[in-house]
Every structure is written in C-alpha cells, then in structure tokens.
Amino acid sequence: MNYVLVPIMIKYYTIGRLFIEAGPQVGFLTSATSEVVNNVSNTSNSSDLKEKTKAFDMAANVGVGYELFDKLVAQIRYSIGLTNTSKIDNTNVKNGVFQLSLGYKF
After folding, report:
1. pTM listed for this prediction
2. Going by C-beta distance under 8 Å and a sequence separation of 6 or more, which residues neighbour residue 79?
3. pLDDT for the residue 45
4. Within 10 Å of residue 25's Cβ, how many Cβ atoms?
5. Which of the chain's ends, N or C, has fewer CB atoms near its CB within 10 Å?
6. Percent of the chain at pLDDT exceeding 90
C-alpha cells in the first residue's frame, strides 16, 4: 500500500539538543497491490487491492531525536495506525510504520 502522508507534529526539547515529538497523521491511499511469487514454478501473480482498501488512514506518531552538531538531525519515529483500512467484512487491518531518519537543517 502506498500513501501520501501528512503528519502534524509537536516537538519538545528536553535536555540540550534531545527532543521528543508526537502528533496525528492523515494518509491518502494512492495504490494498493499484492504480489504472490511461486518459487517452484518461477511465476508471479500481481493483483490490485485498491477496491478492497479504504482511501483514508489516520495514525498517531511518537518519536525521539537528537540534533547533531548545528545542522544535522537524527530521529526515530513510530506511526501507530488508528483506523481499519480494509473494506472486507470482519477484517481489521491497521498500518504501523517504523521510521529512522537523518536530516539536514537549512
């Protein structure tokens, strides 16, 4: 599943350059596909799952980071899925994403 994600984060500096952050995130589905590979016959089958997946996702983000030097930032963030993204009855699918990033401040 591929989403365009829009996080809204609040950052709080704790000790020196160490910070914590939290906030909501909305996601808009752009594509959803599944691929099954059969290693015995060396074949694969791909299917579009967009009709079985809801177009909107909501999540809560939490993270921690540290500003290295003056311009470099390293952080870890986890996105906890709050909404069921499946349109299939009696199926509960929630997205969860672990992110590790390194950034440069201009």
Report:
1. 0.79
2. 5, 7, 25, 59, 60, 61, 95, 96, 97, 98, 99
3. 83
4. 22
5. C
6. 68
